[in-house]
Write a structure and sequence with these properties.
Low-confidence stretches of chain A: none
Strand order of the largest sheet of chain A: 1-2-9-6-5-3-4
Largest interface: A-B, 38 and 37 residues
Radius of gyration of chain A: 20 Å
Helix content of chain A: 40-55%
Distance between the termini of chain A: 44 Å
Number of helices of chain A: 13
Oligomer: homodimer
CATH topology of the largest domain in chain A: Dehydroquinate synthase-like, alpha domain
Chain lengths: 367, 367
């Protein structure tokens, strides 16, 4: 079964296709990949890990497509967050220009969040903007980074500091790709899934509380449901606030703490989702301290996160002072004032700078 | 006298302020520079040539402004088209992040087209988009690159291949800056001024025919009028077609030929405006060959361009074959088909791919 939903953004609206085994249905795959693309020049961008798994299937589907005389080229980038920078974009720009790809070309991002963010940013910048299609192969990318049009690269002084808002023309999720995802990556993706329940969807959180073990066991129907419901939540938020003027900031729940952890560890050791998991626990605890959230709810949140095999405490070697310092550089600090996403209840998040700094200190001190 | 006009782009509309001696009126200067900026963090971006001339005036005006507790920082980039690349943006991103400038900061581009394009692109990408103000100091930048939101950098394989559409929040033109501009730069700017007359404003072209010598003599009222009328024309085109879906392509009159000349010379020796001047002559000749334009009009065009001390023939060492090859890589070649801007009359340009390639060959052969 294949299911399609829409991210409503006026003339920039686009479909998200979610299904099992899409990569093994060449005609359907090629149809979905090429629907709405402006021309016939396609550049697939992937990495060394993903290329051996899926690249051939995608290439073959496009090459044999009934409608096609597509020109299909591929760039394989190195795998890893440490390559998510401006320099790594150069071989991609070189390839596009060497092949004389024009403004009507389409970039296809085949991989996880790093590939999606970098390819999207290259598409935003190449000739001031060309089309791109997201084909996310990790849970994190499927529920988060490939939906919403945030693209970019890291700078040594901060994550995603250089980027653009650039919406894909479609997103194509084959849930079977999760079969090859390693356990830790799967769990890291679950952190963002849990986030959607916490910020705006109590029913979903309750479902997650009941089904987290099914997701860990990679039960296909459970995964498909979780991905679909996560994308619905994300699409709804993004439709209401494409450029993060307000409500979209809710999606950063756990992220100011999380980014501080990632930065403190030099973007090594911990995965993004792991850092966000701790960030959500800390944000829940701060909400309790402020009297906004019941202690029992915070414990329930911590329980679900722990059962998803995710960490619930910041790394030992990050002192509270260092955490605070790193949080203050986060790009959500607007005009010097730290704003956090906190909970009024499960499924009810708010963005606020109206919190007692002492309460934040206490949460950072006690972990 | 200071005059303000508006580029109408809905919520992205912005004013262009044009006046004499604005840099010597600190209160007015600071008012204009800071009107509409979202925060109080300002980064002035300029180059080694412009900094000694105007930087202190701008800094002093902002620092002493009655309303201000602005944080004002400066980055001075090397001067020249050869530094218009991704690498040169690094010190700017470093400076922004080192000073922890947030999303509400404003970049001020003080300089010619290179500074404007690079600063605009940095503003488009920094934290996925911050505000910027254009303060163009060359005629070319005042009438062309600083209006319309095209930003970007060059790639070794092509000019402006990496960029973004990002509108400034205002443009501030002090026509007195033209007093320090060297003759060749002034003439190169006149090429774009003449272009506006040719593509859509017969009356302006007639005025230019009568006043080109006044402009070369830097007669202030003539310069102000030419800048104002050029900006009006550009604003009108950009308002109708912000992202170059159609009509905006008219602004590329002479540019496909011109870009080929620039690329053929390795972006050295000739200035952009000089290459465009020849491009306009060639486009006019092709229009005559196609029977679209009267020969007398083409001669009149060539006469005005020559009187502006601009070249009217392509460089000797660029063969017709090489020109054709370079023209075919230009980014306006959509899906492999070359489109050119040609004239149906003076003040009446069209974008078309419906021209006889033999006629193009003949024009390239005979110069």
């Amino acid at each position: 079964m294949q299911l399609t939903m829409t991210v409503n953004l006026g003339e920039r609206s686009y479909p998200i296709h979610i299904g099992r085994g899409l990569f093994d249905k060449p005609e359907l795959l090629a149809d979905l990949l090429t629907k709405g693309i402006p021309g016939s020049d396609i550049m697939i961008v992937t990495n060394e890990t993903i290329a051996p798994l899926y690249l051939e299937k995608i290439q073959a589907a496009l090459q044999n497509h009934r409608r096609a005389d597509y020109r299909i080229e591929t760039v394989v980038l190195p795998d890893g967050e440490k390559y998510k920078n401006l320099e790594t974009l150069n071989p991609l720009f070189d390839a596009l220009l060497n092949r004389r790809y024009a403004r009507d070309c389409t970039l296809v991002a085949l991989g996880g969040g790093v590939i999606g963010d970098m390819t999207g940013f290259a598409a935003a910048c190449y000739q001031r903007g060309v089309a791109f299609v997201q084909v996310p192969t990790t849970l994190l990318a499927q529920v988060d980074s490939s939906v919403g049009g945030k693209t970019g690269v890291n700078h040594p002084l901060g994550k995603n500091m250089i980027g653009a808002f650039h919406q894909p023309i479609s997103v194509l999720v084959d849930t079977d790709t999760l079969a090859t995802l390693d356990d830790r990556q799967l769990c890291a993706g679950l952190a963002e899934v849990i986030k959607y329940g916490l910020i705006r969807d109590l029913d979903f959180f309750t479902w997650l509380d009941d089904h987290i073990e099914d997701l860990l066991a990679r039960e296909p129907d459970a995964l498909r449901y979780a991905i679909h419901r996560s994308c619905e939540n994300k699409a709804s938020v993004v439709s209401a606030d494409e450029r993060e003027a307000g409500m979209r900031a809710l999606l950063n729940f756990g992220h100011t703490f999380g980014h501080a952890i990632e930065a403190g560890l030099g973007y090594k050791i911990w995965l993004h989702g792991e850092a966000v998991a701790v960030g959500m626990v800390l944000a829940a605890r701060l909400s309790v301290r402020l009297g906004w959230l019941e202690a029992a709810d915070a414990l329930r949140i911590e329980d679900v996160i722990r059962r998803a095999h995710l960490p619930v405490r910041a790394p030992q070697d990050l002192t509270p002072d260092r955490m605070r310092e790193l949080m203050s550089v986060d790009k959500k600090v607007l005009g010097g004032r730290m704003r956090l996403v906190l909970l009024r209840g499960i499924g009810d998040a708010v963005v606020t700078d109206a919190f007692d700094p002492d309460a934040l200190d206490a949460v950072l001190e006690t972990g």
